[in-house]
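Notebook p. 47: complex prediction with fe (ii) ion.
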Amino acid sequence: MDGRARLIDVTGEKPEAPETWPSVIIRREEIEGEIERLADEARPDNGVRSVNLVHPLATAPGLGLAPGIDARIEVLKPGESTVVRRSNGASVTMNIRGEGHARIGGKTIDFVERDVWNTPSMHPVVYTNHGSDLQARLTFSNRPMLEKLMVFYAEQADAIGEEENWFRSLKEGSAGPRAKDSAPIVPIDDGAFLMPYEHLVDPDTVTNEALVWPWRVVEPKLANVRMIGDGYTGRRLYILYNPATERRNGTTHSFFASIASYPGGIVDRPHRHSSAAINYWFGGSGRSTVSGDKLEWKAGDLMLSAPGWAIHNHASGPDGFYSLTIQDHPLMIAQESLIWQETMKDPIKNLGTQIGFQTNIAEFAHS
Ligand SMILES: [Fe+2]
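Predicted complex, structure tokens below:
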């Protein structure tokens, strides 16, 4: 590097369609094999036995299964714990084998198979396996995006006191007046404002805590969407909604996690969105078409199911399916970048800035 910026002539440059990665599937057998391999190795100093499941076209920095989303498996043997860790990434985890508990930002979560929870940014996290089987967790985070921006920050500590310090630093704040109360915002013409520095360094906060969606509570409620009659034009799922994400409808500020429950023989319509989606199919089977590629999958497979802006649709096999979908939808809404085409005949809409697409749910509401 000679230290000089490059001056690139882009005169008359025309818009180009985004490139998309092809879909990829990591099969159940491969995932189960990795869990056993991780358990067979010597315990690392920090207790974190982990594998990053990386798309073949991913490049560093920011290795993930989608350009901005990683999928990692972490394993603990019975009796093991991790050290305390935290990062400025945010994640969603599904426990896929065994049981255990987590302490996340001072909250204790006991979990079994198929329970899902979120880990907010900078919250101290410790995992323990108090069960008799291996514990395996599948975690999705926005770390690749932060690594691409070269701002991913993480730390770990052995001392239990550090967990308390980190937790206390999250909660501390001035009970008295804030400097911004003495620094008025100045309106100018046509709805624009001038905002003093005191607001820049002390923005309004939104409380964000670890929340858990236990499978024993979620599973019976999925009947509501699975049983919607034939001809329904929406998708049979619930978002695992964290109210901290407000109108961005997320589980973390970057992702929603949704759980879908489909009966057999349903074929969704081809569509596309700028949010990227990863599906963990944890029950049943089915097939998908993604950018023209046909893929078959079954319970336990993990798939980059919708690279951003790739045309795709999914269809359930004879016994239906269950899936966990991770999609960077709230991030896209926050950036005003969530373009969406619900069918390929619909116009491209910018969701969150204009009225979105309508399903025919009213026809099924009282049936
Ligand atoms: Fe989709």
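Notes: DSSP finds seven helices and 23 strands in the chain. Residues 25-163 form a domain with the Jelly Rolls fold (CATH 2.60.120.10).
Next step: compare against the earlier run before touching the bench.
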